[in-house]
Structures are given as C-alpha cells and as structure tokens.
Design a protein that fits this description.
6 domains, binds adenosine-5'-diphosphate, 18 helices, disordered N terminus, Beta-Lactamase, alpha+beta, single chain, 21% strand, 752 residues, rod-shaped
C-alpha cells in the first residue's frame, strides 16, 4: 500500500489542460513541424519527379549520342577496311600492263601486226600471263586503239580487232602515262577496272597494254553487309554498290561537259544518261557524316564518306539510323524504369522518413510528458514531505489486520522508534505502555472493528527512553484510490504537556488547599494542640493518680488530685475560651456584602479546584435578588469554604466506602443555593454524603467532635461562632434523598 493520496499539483492541471483543450505550445510546435515536414516532403517529391524527367530525357539524349558515336565509329573503321580492300584490288594488277609492255613479243607484235605467228605467240603469252595473274583480260592495242592480241582471243567476247581509242585509259597510256579507268566494258557490257601502260619502241609509244579487272568480288562482300555501301567516281556518279538500282546515278549535278565526256567515253554504257540518286541529303554539322533520307522507303541512313584521292573515288558506307532511334527508345524505357524505381524509392524513403520523424516526435513528446509528470510528482512528493515533516500530529496507517504500514516523522518522534522499526509491526506495538496492556488491546481491537470513539481515545504510551507519553488517538477508515477500504488511519495528538499541566495544577491546588486549611483551622489547631497538650497530659496523670488514691482510700490526697485535675480542665477550657475569644476579638470588618459574591469568592479560592479533584460537579442555584448582609466578608467566605470542604469530604467518604463494597457510584454533585425569606438571607450547602445520623447531629457543633481520623472537630464549632457573631445562625439537617444540608442564615442588610 502506498502513502496517502496527495491532491494534484498545479503542474498536473496544466498537463490535463493541455490534453483536453486549448493549443499548448508543445502541440502547436508539433503541428508546425508536421506541416513543415509535409511541405518539405512535397518539395522533395517534386524534385524527385523533376530528376526523373531529366533522367529520362537525358538518358534518351545520351543514348542517342552514344549510339551515334558508336555508329560513326563503326562506319569509320569499316570505311578504312573497305578502302584498304578497294585499294588492294585497284592496285593489285597495275603492274601487269607495265610488265607486259616490256615483253619483246608485244613490241614485236606492234611492229609487225600482220605476222600471224607473232600474233599467235602474243595471244598465247597474254593468255598465260592473264591466267597466272588472275586478272579478267590482258590485251594489247596499237597506237590507234585497235586490239591486236588479247588473253581472251579465243572466246566469243574476244577483244581482238576491237577499238578502244575513245577510252581514257588508252589515251592516258598513249601519252606515256599509267592509265586507270572504271567503266562498263564496250565488248562485254560488264563493268570493270581498267589499267594501262605504254609500249615504247625507240622512245616512242607504239602501242598500249591494258588489263581489265573484275570488281564483282568486292561488291559481293558489300552485299553481305546490313546496310548499303557504294562507290562514286570523281564526278559523283555512283558506279559500284550493294544496291543495284542506285548504280550509275549521280550524287550531285553534273556539268554538260562532264555528261558529254562520260557519254563519249561510254564509261557507263552507250546509253547512259544522268539520273540523280533517290535520296535527300541532310548535312549535320556536329556529325562526321551526312544523313540520307529515302522518301520511297521512309528509311534514314547515316552516311560516312571515305575519300580515295589516289583513285579519284569516294567510298560511302551507311548505317540505318533506326538503330539510333532504337537505342534512344531503349534508353527511354530503361530510364523510365529507373525513374520509376527512383520515384518509388523516394516515396518509400519519404514515407519512412515521415514515420521516423513522427516516431521521433512522439518520443520527444512522450519524454516531455514524462519529464513534466516526474517534475509534478517530485513537486507533490516535496509538498507532501514538507507537509508531513511540519505536522506535529502523529500519523499512523494500519492495514485491516493492524499491521503498521505508514508512520510520519511526528509519530516516530512521539514514541522514539524509527519508521523502519515500526512499519510491519502487528499489535502489541513496542510503544504500548506495559502497565496499560489490557487497555491498549481493548482500544486496538475496538478500532480495528471500526468502533473507535469519534471523540478519540486517551492512551498512555511508553517512549523508547522509558518516559510516559499521553496521547489522544483519532481513528478513521483508510480508503484507497479505488474507493476500497484498506485499513485504518490514526492521527495521534501528544497531550503529555497538557496532562502534566493538569497534574501540576492539581498539585498546586492541593498545596493551596493545605495552606488554606492551615490558615483556617490548622493554624488554630496546631496552637491548640500544643497548648492543650500540657493540660491534657496533666489531666491524664491527675486522673490516674486520683484513681489510685481512691483505691487506696486516701481521701485527702484524692481531693488534692481532683482539685488539681479540675484546675487543669479549667485551664484547657480557658484555652478553648481563649480561642473563641480570639475568634470574637478578631478584628471584625463588618461591611455590607453579598452572599452570592461570598459563594463565588470561596469557589474561586479553593472550592472549585477541590471539587474537580474529588470528581465532584459543583452546581449553583443562586437567587436573582440581592442578598446583602452585614458581615465580615473574609470570615463569611471562610465559613462557606469550610462547609463546602466538609461536604466534599463527606462525599469522598461515601465514594471510598462504595469502592470498598464494589457498589456502583454516581457522579457526585455539590449544590450551593442562596435564597431570601422574610428579611433573612440564606445560604445552603447541600451534599450527597452519608448525611447526619442523630448521634452525630446532636454533637456536630461541639468542640473537638469529629468522626474523621485526621479531624480536629473544631471547624463547625468555630463556623457557628462566626455566624452567630454576625447575628445569624448556622443550622444542619439531613437532606431528602440522602446527604446533608448546612445552612447559614443572616439578617438581610438594606440594599445600598
Ligand atoms: P472535623 O473537621 O474534625 O470533622 P468539624 O467540626 O468540621 O470537625 O466536623 C465535625 C463532625 O461533623 C465531622 O467529624 C463529621 O462527622 C460531621 N460532619 C460535618 N459535616 C458533615 C457533613 N456535611 N455530612 C456529614 N457529617 C458531617
């Protein structure tokens, strides 16, 4: 079980307010930061989308450029290879006409063309060499361009007797140059490469040797390539290529002279006429080549031109630009996928970040609340601690079985045991007073049964140091937070100081009473006792002597003794008389005084305190009217006091007797009553003592009559003397229902 509930602190209220209403700073900060995070999230998402779009576009652009670079690179390399092959074919046989021109047989033929044997020998020679070299045709022309001998002399398409004087290669050779020419064969109609060399005789060109080479093998290799390859001459006429319909078409406009020349040379057949190639050219500044656009097929080609200046030709290699578009599309697809992944990743990241942020925020808020709650609890704890420490009232909580579960500092101080020593204890507790164990058990059982007196129980405890501690216990139910009755809470008030004060007061009152008695009676009594002691002792002696003398019959001596004896008795009487005279002669201060005031005064003086000590209740029944009498106020008060004390003593005697007989006693009451009747003021002292049996009533006012072991029997006697000296009388009688009534009657004095 925990300590008692402490009311919520202001901090709690603030926290509660924050939870149920208003917009506390912490909450608005949270809203703000969430808004900011959302905005930031939106911004970053837009950025991610922007990046994604840029990525897609950039990827397309990059892929295009990369593919273009690759294609151009491939074309360039391919061009180099093809140019090398072309050059090889073009130059491989150029030596042949030159070598043949050195042959004496050839010169001999030219010198003597009509010699059949020479012609046959020359034909055989040319046939043999041509076969060995692998060229198409090797032949010899005279200075007029007429073919005299040829390697194909014995075939239907023989060049012999054919005139090739209009062919440029013939013209070049006739002028002493090495001729080269590509054209369609006049005889065969087949295209081929022609190379020629002059035949000298005595430094004079007398004829020409020419060789024709087939270019078809090269075209065959081009046909295996995916995209078109073609070769144009110096005029831009496409004369060799993998696409047959394009052959002999012009790639650029030709001058009229060029057209005439080509037609004259019958380079591309006798019926050749210029026709443009079927494409449009688009120049690209940033590219190493051009783009060919074919409207008929809708195709586009990248075209790379490899010039062969030594041959006067231009080789063109192409690549379908579709691959570039495909690369771009692939890049777009890939980039779109990648962007999608990026966006998804960004979304995931954003969600994760948001969740993390929310978790972080929630944790911060939780920590903040814990801190506030802890602080509030610390405040409440400190508040409770200081409240407990400041309490002078002891607090003790017990469970339903009576086990101590909590004590505060004041309780510990009160009994001298620490909280650790007390908590867990079951009855009997260490501070129970050993002399009052029965009472403690009784009180404890009553309290645990829920029947503790609401006005509290007075208890005497024993402090650890052995001193007695007087306390008041007030016990109430201990209810927990769920409204369940779980034990008992007692508050314990230390009344030791009050008790001590009361005792001291009682002692003081007893002392005062003693003093008072000494003043009133004791003083006289001691005087009397002392003075009477001698005559009384003498009386005893004389009486004893008289008895002895009488027994012996010594009458004379007996008479003397009796004389002496009566003298002593007279002396004693004289002493008593003297006392009475002292009382009478006591300087009286007669004055008008009130009987009621005398009652009050005597009560204040001693009577009330004495009554309380005896456990007697004083009741007053005072007349409303003025009770003025003419009297010595001090003596009058002494009389009232004496009568009151006698009454208390009588009741005390009754009490003691009842206790001895184990009979029940009732609360005792001392009644003081004043009345007026026919000019007489009366004050009655009424008790519930044993009353006045006849044998006592007769002798009440006799001097030295007493029924008390420690009495002197002079009080009433003196009181009567005093009252009588005031012109009044003192009466005694039995009271109805038990007890005695003593009454002072005094003549009423006129009201001043
Ligand atoms: P003492 O003080 O020796 O008792 P008092 O003269 O005062 O002398 O009383 C004489 C006797 O009268 C007492 O011993 C007692 O027996 C009796 N007496 C006095 N007052 C009362 C009274 N109120 N009730 C009964 N007896 C009384």
């Amino acid at each position: 079980m925990g300590p008692p509930h402490i009311p919520a602190m202001p901090m709690d209220e603030r926290v509660t307010d924050a939870a149920h209403g208003g917009t506390p700073p912490a909450q608005s900060a949270t809203t703000f930061s969430r808004l900011r995070a959302a905005l930031r999230g939106t911004g970053s998402m837009a950025a991610v989308l922007g990046v994604a779009v840029l990525l897609v576009l950039g990827a397309g652009e990059w892929a295009t450029r990369d593919e273009l670079d690759t294609q151009w690179d491939n074309l360039r390399r391919s061009g180099e290879v093809q140019a090398l092959a072309l050059r090889g074919v073009a130059t491989r046989y150029s030596y042949l006409p030159f070598t043949a021109a050195q042959q004496p047989l050839v010169a001999a033929l030219l010198r003597d063309p009509d010699s059949r044997s020479v012609r046959d020998a020359a034909n055989t020679y040319l046939q043999t060499v041509n076969a060995h070299a692998g060229s198409d045709t090797l032949y010899v022309m005279d200075a007029n361009g007429l073919t005299l001998a040829s390697s194909n002399w014995n075939t239907p398409s023989s060049f012999v007797d054919q005139n090739y004087s209009n062919r440029p290669y013939f013209r070049d050779a006739l002028q002493g140059l090495a001729g080269r020419f590509y054209g369609v064969g006049k005889t065969t109609g087949e295209p081929g490469l022609f190379a020629s060399a002059p035949v000298y005789d005595d430094g004079k060109v007398i004829g020409v040797v020419a060789v024709k080479v087939q270019m078809q093998p090269i075209v065959d290799t081009w046909a295996q390539l995916r995209d078109p390859v073609f070769l144009a001459d110096e005029r831009g006429i496409l004369f060799l290529g993998s696409v047959a319909p394009w052959l002999y078409k012009t790639t650029r406009p030709l001058s009229a002279q060029d057209v005439l020349q080509v037609q004259h040379d019958e380079q591309y057949g006798a019926r050749w006429a210029p026709q443009p190639v079927p494409w449009q050219v688009r120049q690209r500044d940033d590219q190493p080549g051009v783009e060919l656009k074919l409207p008929s097929s809708g195709k586009n080609y990248l075209a790379f031109e490899e010039p062969l200046p030594d041959l006067g030709w231009t080789l063109t290699l192409t690549a379908d630009s579709k691959v570039v578009a495909q690369a771009r599309q692939q890049a777009w697809v890939l980039a779109t996928l990648a962007s999608g992944l990026l966006v998804l990743g960004a979304l995931y990241w954003q969600l994760r970040e948001r969740r993390l942020q929310e978790n972080r925020q929630a944790r911060i808020e939780l920590e903040q609340r814990v801190l506030e709650r802890t602080h509030a609890l610390q405040q409440a704890q400190a508040f409770r601690q200081s409240m407990e420490d400041s309490l002078l009232v002891g607090m003790r909580a017990r469970d339903l079985e009576g086990r101590i579960v909590y004590v505060n500092a004041a309780m510990c101080d009160m009994v001298g045991y620490s909280a650790d020593e007390l908590i867990g204890c079951l009855p009997p507790y260490p501070y129970w007073h050993p002399d009052d164990l029965d009472r403690h058990w009784n009180d404890s059982d009553t309290a645990l049964a829920g029947k503790a007196a609401p006005q509290g129980n007075e208890n005497r405890l024993r402090h650890r140091n052995g001193s007695d501690v007087y306390t008041m216990f007030y016990t109430a139910q201990l209810i927990d937070g769920d409204g369940k009755h779980i034990g008992w809470m007692s508050s314990v008030v230390d009344i030791t100081a009050q008790k001590r004060a009361e005792e001291q007061q009682q002692q003081r009152e007893a002392q005062l009473q003693r003093v008072q008695r000494v003043i009133t009676v004791g003083e006289m009594a001691s005087t009397l006792a002392h003075e009477l002691n001698q005559p009384l002792a003498a009386l005893v002696n004389y009486a004893a002597a008289a008895r002895s003398l009488a027994a012996q019959g010594k009458t004379e001596l007996l008479n003397d003794s009796l004389t002496a004896l009566s003298a002593q008795a007279l002396r004693a009487a004289d002493i008593v008389g003297r006392i009475r005279r002292w009382v009478r002669q006591h300087p009286e201060a007669r004055e008008p005084c009130d009987l009621n005031a005398a009652v009050d005064q005597s009560l204040d003086l001693l009577l009330r305190a004495e009554a309380r000590r005896h456990g007697v209740v004083v009741r007053l029944d005072l007349a409303q009217a003025s009770l003025q009498v003419h009297a010595d106020r001090v003596l009058l008060e002494q009389v009232v006091l004496n009568l009151g004390l006698n009454a208390l003593q009588a009741m005390q005697a009754m009490q003691t007797a009842a206790k001895a007989l184990h009979t029940a006693t009732h609360p005792q009451e001392l009644l003081l009553r004043t009345t007026t009747d026919a000019g007489q003021a009366s004050l009655q002292v009424l008790d519930r003592g044993p009353g006045l049996p006849p044998e006592i009533a007769e002798r009440l006012f006799e001097p030295f009559f007493t029924t008390r072991s420690d009495g002197l029997g002079l009080g009433l006697n003196i009181c009567r003397s005093i009252v009588e000296s005031m012109g009044g009388e003192l009466l005694a009688r039995n009271r109805e229902g038990g007890g005695a009534i003593f009454e002072i009657r005094l003549p009423q004095a006129p009201t001043p």
